[in-house]
Design goal:
Distance between the termini of chain B: 37 Å
Structural class of chain A: alpha/beta
Oligomer: heterodimer
Low-confidence stretches of chain B: none
Number of strands of chain B: 8
Radius of gyration of chain A: 21 Å
Number of helices of chain B: 1
Order of helices and strands of chain B: EHEEEEEEE
Mean pLDDT of chain B: 94
Helix content of chain B: under 10%
Largest sheet of chain A: 6 strands, antiparallel
Helix content of chain A: 10-25%
Strand content of chain A: 25-35%
Largest interface: A-B, 27 and 18 residues
Low-confidence stretches of chain A: 1-19
Mean pLDDT of chain A: 89
Strand content of chain B: 35-45%
Order of helices and strands of chain A: HHEEEEEHEEHEHEHEHE
Shape of chain B: globular
Shape of chain A: globular
Chain lengths: ~280, ~80
């Protein structure tokens, strides 16, 4: 509330409700720029967000839908993009009984408007090394530990943002992504991941297929095991920073195994999206 | 009930606090564990949100939101630490 407004409404200050009423800051109107299928069950949605301040890799936003009768539903979605500017990329998985995701995946069209709150969350984020970006003063605080990303299904979205930011910044930190996915068709950002993981590139990519593997894949489809995890993540001895995102069950299994394998629990950051 | 974690509190708590509360550390009244709120367990239902300690399951906080108000109880948190700068 501005000072001028406060003065002109002074009598209303006697009401506690008036004193405590706060503007809902951080909410923005987003216009859907485009939408396309990401996988058979997910859509990639490009948003142009009025007043968006930019976001770090790994952050999320809340989307609020309001029905004609005033009923609202709010859900959190990870952001697949990062950096300055007002353009935001989402990749949304359709939950069979969802209130919001079926609308976002099947109904939303270019030109539609959405209410979004964000950027949100400073815990599950990765930022390029300031020292590598040419700031010598940052040398003292430079964290040179390698980064291990571990994704289950659509949990890859914030981790993809981190891998893409890492590549764009030409950051020298070693990056490795272990991505558990149902089938080759279900891989999010497949082309971009392939490019990031190509020969000279910045990312080491390990895929685990849980239902159907590509022709000639060396192992039959199966859920991730402790042995697979041990073989495909940066060893605990190298003290990697680890980011794990996926369903609650996936994240908790993986996090428990990582600790059993000697990883420091404080170096493991997790984000659970619920689900199965 | 399937839970998520404290990362999901970033939006709701932004209505109460001027900084990102999910990176603040909180001390559990139940067991004394100290950790970032992002590491807490979060149970959501139509009635509201319950935040529990990931170490002992003690209720740290409860959150109720309606169209015109938001309410937070912090009964299980004895201290909160915020990093400056």
């Amino acid at each position: 509330m501005s000072e001028a407004t406060a003065q002109t409404t002074a009598p209303a200050a006697a009401s506690a409700a008036a004193v405590l009423a706060v503007p809902r800051s951080g909410w923005h109107v987003a216009t859907v720029a485009s939408t396309r299928r990401e996988t058979p069950n997910a859509a990639r949605i490009e948003l142009e967000v009025d007043g968006w301040p930019g976001n770090a890799a790994g952050q999320h936003l809340d989307v609020r839908l309001t029905a004609p009768d005033g009923y609202t539903a709010t859900r959190s979605y990870s952001i697949a993009s990062s950096g300055t500017g007002t353009h935001v990329t989402l990749a949304v998985d359709k939950l069979p009984d969802g209130e919001v995701s079926p609308y976002l995946v099947d109904e939303v069209r270019a030109g539609d408007m959405l209410e979004v709150h964000g950027p949100l969350g400073a815990f599950f984020v990765w930022a390029p090394d300031a020292a590598a970006a040419g700031d010598p003063a940052a040398d003292a605080t430079r964290d040179t530990r390698p980064v291990q990303l571990i994704a289950g299904g659509s949990g890859v979205v914030p981790l993809f943002a981190m891998a893409a930011a890492h590549d764009a910044a030409e950051d020298p930190t070693p990056f490795r992504l272990l991505y558990s996915v149902r089938s080759p068709d279900d891989v999010y950002f497949a082309d971009a991941l392939r490019r990031l993981a190509a020969a000279s590139a910045s990312l080491q990519l390990d895929l685990v297929y849980t239902r159907r593997a590509p022709e000639g894949w060396p192992s039959p489809p199966a859920r991730i095991t402790r042995d697979v995890l041990e073989a495909a993540v940066i060893p605990a001895a190298e003290r990697p920073r680890v980011f794990v995102c996926g369903s609650t069950g996936f994240v908790e299994r993986v996090a428990d195994w990582l600790v059993e394998l000697g990883h420091d629990a404080r170096s493991i950051r997790t984000e659970r999206y619920g689900g199965t | 009930m399937q839970h998520v974690d404290g990362n999901a509190l970033a939006g709701p708590l932004a209505e109460f606090f001027s900084f990102d509360m999910t990176t603040a550390t909180a001390r559990c009244n139940g067991c004394g564990a100290i950790g970032e709120l992002a590491r807490a367990m979060v149970y959501r239902s139509g009635a509201g949100t319950v935040v529990r300690c990931s170490a002992c399951d003690h209720v740290l906080a409860t959150l109720v939101e309606t169209a015109d108000r938001a309410w937070i109880g912090l009964s299980g948190i004895s201290a909160i630490e915020v990093r400056r700068g």
